[in-house]
Write a structure and sequence with these properties.
Number of helices: 13
Helix content: over 70%
Number of strands: 0
Strand content: under 5%
Largest sheet: none
Structural class: mainly alpha
Distance between the termini: 9 Å
Radius of gyration: 24 Å
């Protein structure tokens, strides 16, 4: 176990380094001068002297390899640099926005599991029935509907027409816990609809496969109750593939919540990334991408460990 963890940590560190390097060089291939973008106002080109002075202040006039070396050195010290836009530490912006995105991630994941797992099992044990077909229709519609369409419809129906919940916004949990959770509810629901459909389909497919296994027939032949067979031998052994899918989807959602954050005016990490890209704020873009990549790698590691815990047949290697 310890050897496996050390091996994965080394691989993870190499992956983070690779991502940092790729992002650094790719950003410099993007057309546009950050200094010129920052100084431009109302479509009027700034003076060349001002642009050059700002480039010198930001270190953009240095050779690219020198900038790359400084970037890696700062990164090794835990310094993600200063934002070009406000000259503030990038880490502070990330620390402020990341928990809000993680709230969406964790909340929507929990809702998706609570809905998708039971419905997937139900569809499998009721294979070919009206219930199975209804769940299949729901999952098909949920997967085909873009998340921003779902979010817009939710705002129109629940916020503007029925006035059950606010249309969007953000209030810190410490300031007003109830309103914070109320504002969090609709974004989580908008994400979890499609996510739960994925879990439903994977659960149904895996449970159907497990129901055909010899050990399930043996358990039934021994006289075990159907509920015991279903929970201990079918559902438990089905959780491995489902866990993998959940982990991959969580990683994908880390940087993919931008549309939901935009629709519901939720100030998360994805919105911060979009603004940084628009303003050519290289340090902020690099920092956000690195944090998202590191979290994705961490989630992948946790998924592998969970899979091994759920299925004793899996060996660490």
């Amino acid at each position: 176990m310890l050897q496996y963890l050390l091996k994965r940590l080394v691989i993870s560190a190499c992956l983070v380094y690779a991502v940092a390097t790729i992002v650094f060089f790719v950003l410099y291939l993007v057309p546009g001068d950050p200094a010129e973008v920052l100084l431009s106002s109302g479509g009027v080109a700034p003076p060349a002297e001002a642009v050059e002075a700002l480039r010198e202040k930001l270190g953009l006039n240095q050779p690219i390899l020198q900038q790359y070396g400084s970037y890696l050195w700062n990164l090794a010290r835990g310094d993600l640099g200063k934002s070009f836009a406000d000259d503030g530490p990038v880490i502070e912006s990330i620390v402020q926005s990341l928990p809000r995105t993680l709230e969406l991630l964790v909340g929507s994941t929990l809702l998706s599991i609570l809905v998708g797992l039971p419905l997937g099992v139900l569809a499998a044990i009721k294979r070919g029935s009206l219930i199975d077909r209804a769940i299949a229709v729901f999952s098909g519609v949920a997967l085909s509907a873009p998340v921003f369409v779902i979010g817009t419809l939710m705002v129109l129906i629940f916020a503007q027409t029925l006035r059950w919940v606010p249309a969007g916004g953000f209030v810190p949990f410490t300031a007003n816990p109830w309103r914070h959770l109320t504002l969090l509810l609709m974004p989580c629901l908008a994400i979890s609809i499609g996510f739960s459909a994925i879990i439903m389909r994977m659960t149904r497919s895996t449970v159907l496969d497990m129901l055909e296994q010899d050990y399930v027939r043996t358990a039934r032949a021994k006289g075990l109750a159907e509920g015991v067979v279903l929970v201990r031998h079918v559902v438990r052994n089905s959780l491995g593939p489902v866990t993998t899918v959940v982990g991959l989807q969580m990683g994908a959602m880390l940087g993919g919540t931008v549309l939901v954050e935009y629709v519901f005016n939720w100030p998360g990490l994805s919105g911060l990334l979009v603004r940084a890209v628009e303003s050519r704020d290289y340090p902020e873009v690099q920092g956000i991408v690195l944090v998202i990549s590191a979290l994705f790698i961490l989630i992948s590691l946790l998924v592998d460990l969970t899979y091994a815990a759920l299925d004793p047949r899996v060996k660490y290697s």
